[in-house]
Amino acid sequence: MAALLELKGLRRSFGPLVALDDLTFSVAAGQVVGFLGPNGAGKTTAMRAIFDLTDLDAGSVRWNGATVGPSERRRFGYMPEERGLYPGMLVAEQIQYLGRLHGMSTSGAAESTRTWLERLDVSDRADSKVEALSHGNQQRVQLAAALVHDPEVLVLDEPLSGLDPAGIDAIGNVLVERAHAGCCVLFSSHQLDQVEDLCESVTIIDHGRLVVSGTVDELTTSGARRLAVRVEGDHEAAWARRCGGVTVSEIKGGEVRLVLDEDTDSDVVLDAARATGRVTEFAFERRRLSEVFRESVAGAEASAS
Amino acid sequence: MKYVVYALAAVVAATAVLRRVWRARHGQRGGEPATGSPRRAGHRWTSAGFRERALLGDVGLVAGREIRERVRGRVFRVVSVLLMVVVAGAIVIPAVDTSSPTAQLVGLVPGPGAPPATLIEQVGHSQAIAVRVVDEADRAAAESALRSGRVDLVVDGAHTVLVDKPIDANDSSDKAELVHALAQDLALYSAYGADGLTLAQIAALSHISPFPVQSLVHGAGGAKSTKVEATSLIGVILIFVILTQYLTWTLMGVLEEKSSRVVEVLLATVRPIELLGGKLLGIGTVVMAQALLLVAEAIVVAKVVGSTLLHGTGPAVIVTTVIWLALGYAFYSWLYAAAGSLAQRQDQVQLLAIPLGVPMIFGYIVALTGASSGSPSGLVKVLAYLPPTAPFAMTTLVGFGAASWWQVALSAGESVVATVGVAVLAARVYRRAVLRTGTRVRLSEVLAGPPRTS
Q: A86–B256: do the CB atoms touch at under 8 Å?
């Protein structure tokens, strides 16, 4: 059985604000799991709970069936949302120190520090102070700090925010590689569509509650059929609104995304589009994660009322 | 003059040692150990990359980092050198001042009834003033020597002490004191001679020592000298300066970890009490190392210049200073660390540090005035048993020889107990406040409510 990190029935409120409302989900090793939700959904609080950095009103965090304690957490790696390193300390020394705090020997930590700084392409800054580094490089160093002790569980809070495409690729590749090496990788993002390619599974939460959880494949291929249609010279998609049996999900740059009712014939949609102008794009599409989120929340609210 | 050179040499040597220690630590970082192939795969947690749990574990690691970072800082080096110079100065200057290396040159004009040169030297000796007697041919030669400054004063055989300028009654210089003593004593010896005493008898009379003075109440008052007060004065000032410096570092260190959010990364693997304890242990170690270095310097310098620092209650004051520096840091460091965890930004530091500094400043001022007034006031005796002020007041009491060993032990015991209490409270505040960001955390918020679930 693959290693498993479980969050069970987490509850936490800050005064009147409920940050976690009976949140339960699990993260299996071997795949990158995206932890998604809008700002303020409770992602950071849940991740902090894994490291006992926040008081819980109820619930527990388990690793392979046992409650997570200090000795388990030494084998976890954490990259917090608010980046945190000693600003005046040298990069290599700092990472080595964090490795030692996770139980490594001096030489083991030094060796691993060098490996990760090279791997993340910041080895030339090993003897710089952290405060002298660019934002992107600080982010890489922060990731190295989470990885130095070769953790079994890797928890990263918004690791991609503020990065350029090269940085996103570099960090994304490391996450995938770690997962395939048997690590449990959980990372959060509030930009749901940005991470679609990166993770195999997602857990989406809102208002401290689980909205939906599953593999990206399952979630994006399930649900109603959807079409992406582009009609030359049309930016309003008024034709689609007149067309019965479809819902306009999104209009972006001339492309309209439509959700088809179960008994709607796509030919009827195509005819309606052609009646408006020349059709330059007409394709069946998978759901985007943002659509999965919207539809799941709407579904949950509908069933609640 | 040569003593100042010795003192400076001691400072330079100590600085060199410090620099070498710093370089050794610094060099360690550059030259990474050339270990064998990395064993990262497989049984990760039993592989060579992972250490056995050290004796002090994470506390030791945190303390080690703290010591490295502090000793490396420029502030530390500047403050260390300054303190060493001040300590050396405080010992050397009074010692050099009283030993008065230049002898007074006394011109002696021969004539009927002129005192022998040995008698003049004896008078100088009784005043602790070095005297050299120079024979002058006659009064005229003596006067010209006095005018040219070749001699400091002249004893004329005809019972006159001759000086170049009138001497002020309040003048306490060696010359003035010697002139007064010679005028008095030579007249006395001359009278003895007139009464028929031989020169040997006069010499014997000039050697008599005064009766001892005994007091009904037993105490160290008789043995007290201004030098011993100076020792406790130096001790009290040192405790204050070092405590102020390192407690500010403690507060800033906690705040730095909080405001840079590195504390979140650290607390993901280290328990709050380990992180805080390690920090205080580390800075405390630097405090003690610096104190012991200063004491070693003080002892060496005092031996070299023959200072009275090592006499009377001096050694007791030195030991007390070191003990109360440790106790004072232990007591206050928890409070300052807790204050640092409550702050959010640098500008709130003063607001939080001032109330903590008040008892320290109060104790310091009372002890200082007590030490320089010549006798310990009742207030000092009370403050010596209150942990926040004991570091200053007890050191002063010991300087006066007004505290016996069990009184010192009692006060130290109180400090230890109070420190444990303060630590429990501070650790609780720290644990709950250090991860809270946004606005400044109120003390009532973190003291109320249930303890953490961990």
A: yes
At residue B54, the pLDDT reads 54
- Cα gap B89→B104, rounded to integer Å: 26
Both tokens assigned to B379: 């207030």
Contact between B49 and A109 using a beta-carbon 8 Å cutoff = yes
In angstroms, rounded to a whole number, what is the distance separating the alpha carbons of residues B381 and B379? 5
pLDDT in tens, A153-197: 999 998 888 888 888 888 889 999 999 999 999 999 887 777 888
What are the pLDDT digits (tens) for A109-123? 999 999 999 998 888
Is B453 within 8 Å of A86 when comparing Cβ atoms? no
Delineate the domains of chain B, giving CATH numbers in brackets: 102-202 (3.40.190.10), 225-447 (no CATH)
Name the A residues in 144-203 with CB < 8 Å from any B CB.
145-146, 150, 152
Q: What is the ipTM metric for this complex?
A: 0.85
Considering CB atoms only, which of B33, B47, B269 is closest to A74?
B269
Which of A86, A106, A118 should be substituted to probe chain B, the one whose Cβ sees the most B Cβ atoms within 10 Å?
Answer: A86
CA distance to A92, B76, B285, per residue, from B70 (Å): 18, 7, 11
Do residues A54 and A144 both lie within one domain?
Answer: yes
Distance from CA of A166 to the nearest CA of B (A): 25
Residue A174 and residue A282 share a domain? no
| Residues in CB range of B120: below 8 A, 6 or more apart | B106, B108, B131, B133, B155, B182, B186
Does A56 contact B at CB distance below 8 Å? Answer: yes
A63 min Cα distance to partner chain B (Å): 15
CATH of residue A89's domain is 3.40.50.300
A52 contacts in chain B (CB < 8 Å): 267, 453-454
How many CA atoms, within 13 angstroms, populate the side-chain half-sphere of residue B327? 28
Amino acid at A249: S
pLDDT score of B304 more than 80: yes
CB B70 within 8 A of CB B76: yes
Indicate whether A293 belongs to any domain.
Answer: no
Residue A4 in contact with partner chain B when CB distance is under 8 A: no
- With 0.80 as the threshold, say if the pTM is over it: no
Q: Which residues in chain B are contacts of A154 at CB distance < 8 A?
A: none
pLDDT digits (tens, 9 = 90+) for A120-151: 888 898 899 988 988 888 889 999 999 999 99
